C-alpha cells in the first residue's frame, strides 16, 4: 500500500485550505484534487510503498515522545514551476529540525526510498495541481486578489496517511 508521513492542518486553517481547493478546482477546471481528495496537510516524507508499516508506526510513536510543539505560519501563496499552487507554510527553525530529524530516523529503516523533497524540505499545502499555463495565470491572479488569511499553527502532530483508493488518515501521533 502507498503511504506518506505528514503534518495534518487542523481547525480554521484546514477549513480555509479546503475551501480554496473546492473553490479553485471547479472555477478553473483544475479538478485533480477534487477527483483525488487529500486531507489538508504538509508532507514531511513523500509517498512510499512498504510492507513494514508497523516498524514505521513504532518509530514515529517513539520519535514524537521526544518532540515539542513549535510554530508554523500559514498564509501566503506560492507555486512550483507554474504547475502546483499552494498555501505557503513557514516552519520555525525548531519545527524544520523536527522534519530533518524524522527523515534521519526513517533512514535507519531498510528499504525505504527517499526523494529529493524529503531531504530538501519545502513545506506547503497544495491548492491546485497540474495547472496548464493559461489556468495557472488565471488561478494565480484570482488568488492574488483574494483577502489572504494568515494562521499561526502549532506543529502538534506527525501523521501517516495511506492510499487504498483515495488518500485517508491512517494514524495520528500527537506532539506534546
What labels would you give this structure?
single chain; 176 residues; alpha+beta; Cyclic Phosphodiesterase, Chain: A; 4-stranded antiparallel beta sheet; 8 strands; globular
Task: Explain what this protein looks like in three dimensions.
The longest helix has 18 residues, at 11-28. This protein has helices spanning 11-28, 32-35, 53-64, 93-106, 116-119, 133-145; strands at 2-8, 41-49, 71-80, 84-91, 124-129, 151-154, 157-163, 168-174. 37% of the residues lie in helices and 33% in strands. The chain has a single domain (2-174), classed as Cyclic Phosphodiesterase, Chain: A. The two termini are 29 Å apart. With 176 residues, it is an alpha+beta fold. Strand 3 and strand 4 (84-91) form a beta hairpin. It has a 4-stranded antiparallel sheet, with helices on one face. The protein has a 4-stranded antiparallel sheet with strand order 5-4-3-6.
